[in-house]
Amino acid sequence: MLEVNGLIKKYGKQNAVNDISFRLEGGEVVGLLGPNGAGKSTTMKCIVGLLRKTAGEILIGGHDHLSVAAKKLFSYIPETPNVYDLLTVKEHMQFIAQAYKVDNWKDKADQWMELYDLTDKKDKLGRDLSKGMRQKVSICCALLPDPQLLFFDEPMIGLDPKAIKNTKKIFKELKERGKTILVSTHLIDSVETIADRIMIMKDGNIIGNDTLSSLKSQFSATDDSSLEDLFLELTKDE
Ligand SMILES: Nc1ncnc2c1ncn2[C@@H]1O[C@H](COP(=O)(O)OP(=O)(O)OP(=O)(O)O)[C@@H](O)[C@H]1O
Fold it and tell me: Which residues form the ABC transporter domain (predicted)?
């Protein structure tokens, strides 16, 4: 579903992403972890075409990632939600529904807005929404087209506890429905139970990419050590 080969992204002379390669098979859920500045957001932004890559090849469903065919396959939830100042919550849904030709969009949009407590905010303008509400709108917009592949960059940031709980539940449901998910997060427990694989980045490199149990055995962690213990061990400065 996703193939990244030799991705390099430089900001000026600095390599933010340092020649990384990885794949996501259809139906896989992969947790992308790493300390601040590791290159997680840069990697995602290059994949979804928001940043121009310096080098490398990225294929989505076998199509170049910048092609329309690729864009039809995925949704992206950015680390900072961008909403349109002058569209209401409902108009955001309508805009996405029309762009992605979503059937029966009103019922689907109502369900997502209800789940994220946005029903009574549906006529509020984007510019009048709180940070958490913007994040909720961003998530609803990404879920509405029901894409095969979802990129979540720090989806829990700014969400209230109920929305965090719902989002974890949605991850589980999406996984059960065979969706492919790449989720970057610092809330390690939010991916520990659902991720088929964990990818750990540090200084622009992938320093671990395997199932949790394989990572534990590779790095001689004990069976009862958590993903958090493993993460801290792998990313500690020498
Ligand atoms: N627009 C930019 N211009 C210059 N350098 C940047 C820019 N954006 C990111 N960087 C640098 O690229 C590196 C990777 O940043 P990135 O935002 O991808 O990390 P991250 O893993 O997502 O971090 P965080 O967990 O803090 O969100 C960092 O060293 C950062 O300072």
Answer: 2-228
Provide ipTM, 2 decimals: 0.97
Q: Are 44 and 187 in contact (CB under 8 A)?
A: no
Residues 39 and 18 sit within 8 Å (Cβ to Cβ): yes
Spatial neighbors of 187 by CB under 8 A, at least 6 apart, are: 156, 164
CB distance 222 to ligand 1 below 6 Å:
no
Q: What are the structural domains, with CATH classification, of the chain?
A: 25-50+68-73+147-238 (3.40.50.300), 82-146 (no CATH)
Q: What is the pTM of this model?
A: 0.92
Per residue in 23-49, pLDDT (tens digit) is 999 999 999 999 999 999 999 999 999
Cα of 208 vs its chain's centroid, Å: 18
- Of 10, 17, 36, the residue with max ligand 1 atoms within 8 A of its CB, to mutate for a pocket test, comes to 36
